[in-house]
Design a protein that fits this description.
Elements lengths: L1 E5 L9 H15 L3 E7 L8 E4 L2 E6 L14 H16 L6 E4 L5 H6 L6 E5 L8 H10 L2 E4 L2 H10 L7 E3 L6 H5 L9 E5 L8 H11 L7 E5 L5 H7 L6 E5 L3 H9 L3 E4 L3 E2 L3 H8 L4 E4 L3 E2 L1 H8 L2 E4 L3 H12 L2 H17 L2 H16 L4
Parallel strand pairs: 1-2, 1-5, 2-4, 5-6, 6-7, 7-8, 9-10, 9-12, 10-11, 12-14, 13-15, 14-16
Antiparallel strand pairs: 3-4
Length: 366
């Protein structure tokens, strides 16, 4: 198959969606398919045409500061990318599949009606001011992929997409990479890995950790990632013992910390399906997340027994951390469940299902 993936950002910009398409794309290439990424040229020095792990990357529609300091998308950038995508793909209409990332959503509205067969991916469904745009997208593209049961239910309940038009293709994890070696767990080592943006609520995690240290002196917190909140998080954690704000780390250093982690905390307000949480589980770390309405990770944890769900307040998060710390048997049980769950989400298994689904769409065999 020749597969075109339309996504606003891609490597070397790395976040959840970018990592998903990188992992899926390189495995599809190894299976003999031709994968093209059509994306923004978010940095002018990046080549317009590139190859990454066998994936053909086409960068265009350069927009300076596409993601603003407040972590919003610039209107100019969205329109430039969305309109450019129509003209770019109309001249290259020989793909077997056109696969649309959810964001920036306008590209699906503008280009979706002209490209066939098209598949729309949904990582989350928002019930705010963009819900009207979501409803439009759900009408112009008939094939849909949801990253979780949680997102599929929202597509069905709120956007009225028939369930038979939705395929669940979850996020995955390179299980062997995160579970490799015999790493000794640092009891009390808490890790967060991800973007440093407002909806992740790192301020809540830091204050919960401050409370934990009053009773557990050997506890340590490692926050790994980049984003606009990095300076304010460092300021908040200033003089807090055993709290390490690393920013971005080389992969091997990040792996060392995650493999030796005792617990992973994800206090995010909204998650379609957290890749970092799966990576932590592959490393044998139970996960604490927070009970926000738009957080799909809490459902995975509750059903599979891989961690705990706290209320969105520092006392509740601190209480859950302390409970796991004081009960090694509970931690062992959660750690084992976490590894088992992560193994079931290995990227090779996920891509097998993804490949089969795309072939059925391409052959119109629904």
């Amino acid at each position: 198959m020749r597969v075109a993936i339309l996504t606003e950002l891609f490597y070397p910009h790395i976040a959840g969606c970018e990592r998903r398409y990188f992992e899926i794309g390189k495995r599809l290439v190894k299976r003999g398919h031709e994968v093209h990424i059509f994306t923004m040229r978010h940095e002018k020095e990046l080549p317009k045409d590139d190859m990454v792990e066998g994936i053909l990357v086409h960068r265009y529609a350069h927009s300076k500061n596409y993601i603003t300091l407040n972590h919003f998308r610039s209107v100019e950038g969205v329109l430039k990318y969305s309109l450019s995508t129509i003209f770019r793909l109309m001249s290259e209409k020989d793909f077997d599949i056109y696969y649309f990332n959810q964001w920036p959503i306008a590209h699906s509205i503008f280009a979706g009606p002209f490209l066939s067969p098209a598949v729309q991916e949904w990582c989350e469904v928002w019930l705010n001011k963009i819900v009207t745009l979501e409803r439009i997208v759900s009408k112009v593209i008939s094939h849909n992929v949801a990253v979780s049961d949680f997102t599929k239910r929202r597509l069905t309940n709120f956007l009225r997409v028939p369930p038979e038009r939705i395929m669940i293709i979850p996020n995955g994890v390179d299980y062997s990479k995160f579970s490799a070696g015999s790493y000794e767990k640092r009891w009390g080592r808490i890790v967060y890995l991800g973007r440093l943006v407002p909806h992740k609520h790192l301020d809540l995690l830091i204050e919960a950790f401050r409370q934990v240290t009053q009773n557990i002196s050997e506890a340590e917190l490692h926050i790994i990632g980049s984003g606009p909140l990095l300076p304010s998080i460092r300021k908040q954690a200033f003089k807090l013992d055993n709290c390490f704000i690393h920013g971005l780390l080389p992969e091997e250093k990040m792996l060392d910390i995650l493999r030796s982690s005792w617990l992973f905390v994800l206090p995010s307000e909204r998650e379609g399906s957290g890749i970092a949480a799966l990576e932590a589980m592959a490393a044998g770390a139970p996960v604490i997340t927070v009970d926000y309405p738009d957080n799909a990770t809490k459902e995975l944890i509750t059903k599979q027994g891989t961690g705990m769900v706290a209320q969105p307040e520092k006392g509740s998060v601190a209480s859950k951390i302390t409970k796991i710390y004081s009960d090694e048997g509970l931690w062992q049980k959660m750690s084992g469940s976490a590894r088992s769950l992560a193994m079931a989400y290995d990227w090779d298994k996920v891509v097998g299902s993804f490949e089969s689904y795309l072939q059925r769409v391409a052959n119109n065999s629904f």
